[in-house]
Design a protein that fits this description.
142 residues; two-stranded parallel sheet; 51% helix; extended
């Protein structure tokens, strides 16, 4: 999502850390689940606005249109109930076979289906270049 570079970089870093941790501790019977939540009504019963949370640099007018479009999308997302999320989390903790990742909230699944379909297509379209980038170190033509 635009305008969230630092936020998303930190989330991807934690996801990678937890995925690695899951593999490292699996032989000890320890399970790790990454919860990927949508917006939840944690502030006065409303879905928090990530573009107006008191921790954003002064707005650059060049991004006004983008901010308006994002606010329109964010405003349509239903706020999740934190109590329902807590109950779902307990179900995961009580599960004998919890997932590595789980989405909490509505709207993510269709979006992620498209994101991953686009990634798979791009990787397939560029597979020849990917193989070329590997090179052939065992050859004398270096």
């Amino acid at each position: 999502m635009p305008l969230g570079g630092a936020y998303h970089a930190s989330k991807w870093a934690l996801e990678a850390l937890n995925e690695t941790l899951a593999h490292e501790v699996a032989d000890f019977g320890v399970k790790v689940t990454v919860i990927e939540p949508a917006g939840f009504a944690t502030r006065s019963g409303k879905n928090p606005d990530p573009l107006d949370n008191g921790h954003v640099a002064e707005a650059d007018p060049a991004y006004d249109g983008l901010r308006r479009r994002l606010a329109g999308v964010m405003g349509k997302q239903p706020a999740g109930d934190p109590a329902a999320a807590a109950r779902a989390l307990i179900k995961i903790a009580d599960s004998d076979d919890p997932p590595l990742r789980v989405l909490f909230g509505q709207g993510f699944y269709p979006m992620l289906q498209q994101v991953y379909a686009d990634r798979l297509k791009t990787w397939a379209d560029w597979q020849d270049l990917s193989r070329e980038a590997q090179g052939k170190l065992d050859q004398e033509d270096r």
